[in-house]
Amino acid sequence: MSRAEQRDEADCVCSVGMKLTWDINDPKLPQDLKQFDPFQEWTDGYVRYIYSADDKNAQRHLSGWAMRNTNNHNCQILKKSCLGVVVCSRGCTLADGSRLQLRPAICDKARQKQQKKMCPNCNAALELLPCRGHSGYPVTNFWRVDCKAIFFQAKGVHDHPRPESKSETEARRSSVKRRVSSPPFTPKRRLIDALGPALLCVEPPERISFIEPNFPQHYPPFQSTESYYNPHNALGEAPPTLQKPANTRLYMGRPGYEFQGYLTSPTYPVTSDLCDPRSGSQIQVTPVLASSSTPSSSSAPLSSSSSSFDPQTKPPPAWKELLKSSAPYGDNHHYYSTEYPCRYPSNPPGSPAALQTIITTTTKVNSVLRFRQPLLSVGEKKGLPGCSSLLDDASSSYSTEVKVTDEPGGVIKSLSFPPEPLQTKTERTDGYDYHYAYPNTYRYDDY
DNA sequence: CCATGCGGGGGTA
DNA sequence: TACCCCCGCATGG
Predict the structure, then answer these.
(1) Phi-psi bin for A322: left (phi > 0), alpha (psi -120 to 50), beta?
(2) CB A267 within 8 A of CB A208
(3) What residue ranges are annotated as transmembrane (predicted)?
(4) What three-state secondary structure class fits A52?
(5) pLDDT confidence of A418, banded at 50, 70, 90?
(6) What is the per-residue pLDDT across A346-394, written as a single tens digit (0 to 9) for each?
(7) Rounded Cα gap, residues A354 and A368, in angstroms
(8) Rg, C-alpha atoms of chain A
(9) Which residues, at least 6 apart from A421, have a Cβ–Cβ distance to it below 8 Å?
(10) How far apart are CA A194 and CA A121, in angstroms?
(11) How far is the CA of A311 from the C1' of C4 (A)?
């Protein structure tokens, strides 16, 4: 790599994964990686990240979104699809103005059970708002392990609010256990019973820590490019700097049909992604974050926010495209499907979204891989956990140069998302029911 | 209990 | 053949 390229890379405020051109299905993934991306908890959009194989969160295939394992019949690539978010079917507003946004249980049975419960606030039924962010199908995340790296690729743009994060859910769960075992019955107990661990967010934010220190719950005032690209970031000993782009992003409403800037749970840092093309409205954030949110910072190393540096990471509303009513969940969700603004975004013809759908295949990649790379050791078992790399034999290192080809990766790379103005005005027609404007997630503070 | 993974298998285009 | 989803099983916290 030339010096110029190195510099370029250093200056480029872009994730490592997105800088390289690759697709999760490629026979050969980039090799000799020198940098890794810090773990991203809330990925959204058609993004790619490359984590260190030592990154525990990556090893666990973690995601803030409730993702469930999906069988793609390919042991090399783990595929997970988004379950959406559980909300009050009535869309009631909690005392603090927030709304209920529970994390769908991953386990099918647990989820069914969960949905039978009532909204602790208005006693209405709870409803699962499915994700249809990927051409009508749930957003999918793909994980693939290569000896020294864990490749992550996401396809689709979540068209629903964020559920509480896994850590929050767990924190509450444990919290519930503690309480349930002591006090007999209190008004609050009712809520607990109603939602199980889901609504007991009584723990102070501090308690809700992520598996790794990498998850800044408190955002430091600044982050240098160095820290961002520091491989150690992904190793668990991350410096206390802002480095979780997606994670720090407030799920801002999308222009035209946003959730009116619904935020994630109160425990999340108040940061916004003003550079998010989808963020039509802007939020005033703390000076700290504001600094990394100014338009000019989109190219500044100060912010590691993927949302601010990578257009592909934050595709414009157009991405919500194809959420045609004919989609899988088309009718069931009268409420959401017909009124939920994000369900009906406009999608300019030939939008990246449309193109992207072209590269979403993963199933049975083995066969593909075999075709493309005879040397591939198909016999390899379980690529993910270990270092089963199917690339062991790939003596030649993968070119890290952008290859503009007809390959999936090439397509991605060549894509340039339409500037947000394009759809800043879509469908927020009058009829829009703001029931689903999520100013916040629920918060339980009637203690 | 429930999160996760795995893999068989059905349905559809 | 590609891709989606469901289901049961096993494991582990």
Answers:
(1) left
(2) yes
(3) none
(4) strand
(5) very low
(6) 333 333 333 333 334 444 443 333 333 333 333 333 333 333 333 333 3
(7) 22
(8) 21
(9) none
(10) 10
(11) 29
